[in-house]
Amino acid sequence: MKKYTPQDVGENLIKELIQAALECRENSYAPYSGYRVGAALLSSKGLMYLGCNVENASYGATICAERNAVFRAVAAGQREFVAIAIVGGPDDEEVPLSGSAYPCGMCRQVLSEFGSSDMKIIVAKSTDDYEVFTLGELIPHGFGPAILNNVNDI
């Protein structure tokens, strides 16, 4: 089985991830904010995992689309990710979306647990209107597993 890297994520795969995220966004449960988000996560094995935001009346129990996708992938045995596409906007908004849904700090931290600094973060309004960042650009000097692995060296 081919092992995917962030460098393998070209335009066709980016568009496929965005389309899957847009479709998953339709399943979002956002009765409180009215802001629906979908995410499509690509593992290093080339498998795609979807997530959408799921809100809760107890706001702290809400989960973002990105973490939902990561936790689904981890539950399926995946531990390395190379790309994630994220789309989001108001409940009644059609594609192309008017704004970009960047991952929150907590989602960035969770992604840094399983993705390298060159993991691709795709923030999209449609399959033709998107930006691509690396995880390192979105969370520079992040706290991750490598820091804890070096604790015994101090």
Textual characterization of the structure:
The mean pLDDT is 94. This protein has a five-stranded mixed sheet. By secondary structure, it is α+β, with helices and mostly antiparallel strands. The radius of gyration is 15 Å and the shape is globular. The protein starts with 10 loop residues before the first helix and ends in a 5-residue tail after the last helix. It has one domain (6-153): 3-Layer(aba) Sandwich (Cytidine Deaminase, domain 2). Strand 4 (115-126) and strand 5 (129-134) form a beta hairpin. It has helices at 11-25, 65-75, 105-114, 135-138, 145-149; strands at 35-43, 48-52, 81-90, 115-126, 129-134.
Report low-confidence residues grouped into runs of 5 or more: none
| Major pleated sheet | 5 strands, mixed
CATH fold-level name:
Cytidine Deaminase, domain 2
CATH architecture: 3-Layer(aba) Sandwich
Biggest sheet strand line-up: 2-1-3-4-5
Q: Quaternary status of these chains?
A: single chain
* Helical coverage, percent range: 25-40%
Proportion of residues in β-strands: 25-35%
* Number of H/I helices: 5
Question: What top-tier CATH class fits best?
Answer: Alpha Beta
Task: Determine Rg (CA atoms, Å).
Answer: 15 Å
Query: How many domains comprise the coordinates?
Result: 1
Structural class: alpha+beta
CATH-wise, what's the superfamily?
Answer: Cytidine Deaminase, domain 2
Please tell me what the overall shape is.
globular
- The ordered H/E elements are HEEHEHEEHH
Number of strands: 5
Between the first and last Cα atoms, what is the distance in angstroms?
Answer: 38 Å
Q: How confident is the prediction overall: mean pLDDT?
A: 94
